[in-house]
């Protein structure tokens, strides 16, 4: 899904394209429309992504599943924590690269083929699934390529995080810097 966006950005902007494609677009109506659409997407996806975590936290805290002030406080504190993390790590892209290179790669490319092959090899009172050789080769290729690319991406993001210009003082400590 990201490949067409990356290729289009590289073709249109060439060597001047930035990691955040929005920073490459010239100011004007197109940029404002894209920013509005991205903001709508983020607001909606924030609710969708935060809700399961909030429900899990509420279950751990043994809060009632009905609407109450306890749930309002717990979810408000969770949003405050997310805001604190966002303001503490101004260059959040490096952390996202680390997460994407490690956990997302494992979840998308390494674990599914591995678990499928393991489940198919298990014996029991259920119908046996025989994986043909061409599927095994394809699954192993996905697993190996995913592992190698994930390790390279993780190493690259750790190396980027270790660079001196990677971290800056958060805006709530450095009062001369603007938060935002």
TrEMBL record:
<feature type="domain" description="Amino acid transporter transmembrane">
    <location>
        <begin position="1"/>
        <end position="150"/>
    </location>
</feature>
<feature type="transmembrane region" description="Helical">
    <location>
        <begin position="95"/>
        <end position="117"/>
    </location>
</feature>
<keyword id="KW-1133">Transmembrane helix</keyword>
<dbReference type="InterPro" id="IPR013057">
    <property type="entry name" value="AA_transpt_TM"/>
</dbReference>
<dbReference type="Pfam" id="PF01490">
    <property type="entry name" value="Aa_trans"/>
</dbReference>
<protein>
    <submittedName>
        <fullName>Amino acid transporter AVT3B</fullName>
    </submittedName>
</protein>
<keyword id="KW-0472">Membrane</keyword>
<keyword id="KW-0812">Transmembrane</keyword>
<feature type="transmembrane region" description="Helical">
    <location>
        <begin position="30"/>
        <end position="51"/>
    </location>
</feature>
<feature type="transmembrane region" description="Helical">
    <location>
        <begin position="72"/>
        <end position="89"/>
    </location>
</feature>
<feature type="transmembrane region" description="Helical">
    <location>
        <begin position="138"/>
        <end position="158"/>
    </location>
</feature>
């Amino acid at each position: 899904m990201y490949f067409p966006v990356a290729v289009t950005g590289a073709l249109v902007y060439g060597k001047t394209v930035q990691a955040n494609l929005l920073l490459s677009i010239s100011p004007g109506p197109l940029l404002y429309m894209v920013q509005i659409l991205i903001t709508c997407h983020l607001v909606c996806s924030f609710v969708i992504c935060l809700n399961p975590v909030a429900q899990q936290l509420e279950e751990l805290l043994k809060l009632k599943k009905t609407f109450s002030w306890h749930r309002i406080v717990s979810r408000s504190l969770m949003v405050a924590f997310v805001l604190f993390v966002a303001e503490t790590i101004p260059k959040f892209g490096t952390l996202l690269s680390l997460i994407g290179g490690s956990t997302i790669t494992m979840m998308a490319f390494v674990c599914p083929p591995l678990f499928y092959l393991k489940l198919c090899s298990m014996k029991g009172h259920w119908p046996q699934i025989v994986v043909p050789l061409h599927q095994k080769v394809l699954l192993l290729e996905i697993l190996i390529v995913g592992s190698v690319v994930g390790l390279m991406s993780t190493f690259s993001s750790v190396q980027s995080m270790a660079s001196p210009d990677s971290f800056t003082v958060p805006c709530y400590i450095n009062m001369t810097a603007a938060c935002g």
